[in-house]
Amino acid sequence: MTRQLSRADRLIHQFDTVLRTLVPHAAQPERPSPAGNIADEPMTEAEREHAVGLMRINHTGEVCAQALYQGQGLTAKLPDTREQMERAAQEEIDHLAWCDTRLQELHGHTSLLNPVFYAASFGLGAVAGAVGDRVSLGFVAATEEQVGRHLDDHLHQLPTSDRRSRAVLEQMREDEAHHERWALEAGGARFPLPVKLGMRLMSKVMTKSVYKL
Ligand SMILES: [Fe+2]
Ligand SMILES: [Fe+2]
C-alpha cells in the first residue's frame, strides 16, 4: 500500500515538473534574474526579432535540460550524485524562467516545438540513465559542453543593445560550465568524437527549427 502511494506521489511530482517546464510562465526561479534592473538600449525591429529567435533557442535548450535530468532521475542509480544532480536541475529551472521572462520582455513566445523536444530528451535521458551512471554523467557533460558552445555563439550574435539578454546568458554560461565540470569529476565518461558530432547534428536541427517556431 505504502509503495503504491509513493509511486503515485512520484508520478504526481513528475507530472508537476512536466507542466512547470512546458506551460509558459509556470517555472519559478530560485535566484532572481541576472538582468536585474539593467536597462536596454533601443533596438531596431530586426535586432529584436533576432534576439527573440536566440532566446527562444536558449529557452528550448533549458526545456531539454529539464527533460534530460528528469529522464535520468527515473532510471539512474547515482547514489552519490543524486543530490548534486537535483541541484543542477534547479539551476536549469532558473535558466528556464529567466529565458521565459526575457522572451516576454522582448514580445516573443516560447517554441511551439517544446513538447517534441521535451519528449525526445526525456527518452534519451532515461536510456542513458539505464545504461549506467558513467554514461549518464557523461551525457550531462557532453550536453553542457554543447550548450556552452551555443551560449558563446549567442553572446557573439546578440545585438549589443540587448544588455538584459546578455546578462542572463553570461550567468547561464557560468552555471553550465560548472555543471560540465561537476559531471566529469563525478565520473562521467568522456564521449568519443562521433557521438559528440551526432549530438551536434541533433542540436542543429533543434536550433534551426526553434529560431522560427
Ligand atoms: Fe541551463
Ligand atoms: Fe546545465
TrEMBL record:
GO cellular component labels: plasma membrane
Gene Ontology molecular function, alphabetical: 3-demethoxyubiquinol 3-hydroxylase activity; metal ion binding
Pathway(s) where this gene product acts: Cofactor biosynthesis; ubiquinone biosynthesis
Residues binding Fe cation 1: 62, 92, 95, 176
Top-rank taxon, per record: Bacteria
UniProt: Fe cation 2 binding residues: 92, 144, 176, 179
Family annotation (Pfam families): COQ7
Keyword Metal-binding: yes
Membrane topology: Peripheral membrane protein
Catalyzed reactions per annotation: a 5-methoxy-2-methyl-3-(all-trans-polyprenyl)benzene-1,4-diol + AH2 + O2 = a 3-demethylubiquinol + A + H2O
Cofactor requirements of the protein: Fe cation
Comment on bound cofactor: Binds 2 iron ions per subunit.
Keywords: Cell membrane, Iron, Membrane, Metal-binding, Monooxygenase, Oxidoreductase, Ubiquinone biosynthesis
E.C. no: 1.14.99.60
Claim: Metal-binding is one of the keywords in the record: yes
Subcellular localization(s) per the UniProt record: Cell membrane
UniProt xrefs under Gene3D superfamilies: 1.20.1260.10
One Gene Ontology term from the biological process aspect of the record: ubiquinone biosynthetic process
Enzyme class: oxidoreductase
NCBIfam families, sorted: DMQ_monoox_COQ7
Family: Belongs to the COQ7 family.
Annotated function: Catalyzes the hydroxylation of 2-nonaprenyl-3-methyl-6-methoxy-1,4-benzoquinol during ubiquinone biosynthesis.
PANTHER family (alphabetical): 5-DEMETHOXYUBIQUINONE HYDROXYLASE, MITOCHONDRIAL, COENZYME Q10 BIOSYNTHESIS PROTEIN 7
Protein name, as recorded: 3-demethoxyubiquinol 3-hydroxylase
